[in-house]
Structure formats: structure tokens, C-alpha cells
Amino acid sequence: MRKFFDALKVIAVIVLVVWFVSLLIGNSKKSREISKQNKIIHMYETTYLSDESETAKSISELESQLEAANNRIVELEQQINGGIQDNVYFDLRFPTDGNYYKEAYDEVPFYSDPTCTIKISDVRFMSSEVDHGQAENGLEIYCLRMDNGQICYCTESPYLITEKKYNEMHEEK
Question: How do the domains of the chain map onto residue ranges?
Fold first, then answer.
């Protein structure tokens, strides 16, 4: 009976950790992985509580699945910490001043990937800073931080103006 309560405590802690991690991630792929881990934990709970004779038979199997789930949670937490570090870098590299920016003449195409193959439209930027580099495919690219915090790419240096000035400029036309 003590093992039963110890297992419930472990399960409760794991469920809380999984819930906390899922709140921080916000990424659908990672959320699906955590959901899968929750299903394993749920399967562990229902199997453990439902039929004692069958539970005793599959405890070692479930414990190995639980250990794998715990390992995956640790990996996801490390990825979250890496994402937090990325945000710190982005905040330093692309500082915000409270304004949003747009490309002045709507002539520069923007892309969601660094190889500039997936075109996006109607973008606005939280920083006027532009980073410059070379993509893996050899393209010279410019990197900008969009208003949603993601990075977008273009192959020409954009001329950015505040969104207010952009709206005034395009109202006159």
C-alpha cells in the first residue's frame, strides 16, 4: 500500500511538472510530445489503480515508460531554457523602443525561413535593427525581428519606417 501512495506522489509531481512545462513551451510539436507523455502517465495511473494482479505484472514495463517520460521532460526543460536564452539574445540584438516598423515601400519580400523559400506578407517589426549574414544555401540575408518575436529573412536590405509614418505615407496615395 505504501508503494501505491509513493507511486501516486510521483505521478502527481510528474503531472505538475508536465503541466508547467507545457505552459512554457507553447509550441505545438512540443505540446504534442508532452501530451504523449501525459497519456503514458495516465495509462500508468489507470493500469496501476484498476487491476492489481495485472498491475503487478506490468509495473516494471510502466516504470521504464515513466523513466523515459521523465527523461523527455528533462530534455524539454533544457530546450525551454535554450529558448529563454534565445529570447535574451534577441532582446539584446533587436532592442525595442515601443514603436513598430514596416518596410516603407512594400517592395522587399520577406520569408519565414533563412533559405528564403517560404514567403510571408503583411509583416511588421518590433525593432528597427537589421542583422546581416549568409544563409546555409549561400544567400546573403537580412534578419529582422517581427512583432510576434519570431525572426524573418529577406535578401535585400529593407528601408524601415515607423508604422505610424508608414500609415500616413500610404494614406496620401
Answer: 2-93, 101-171
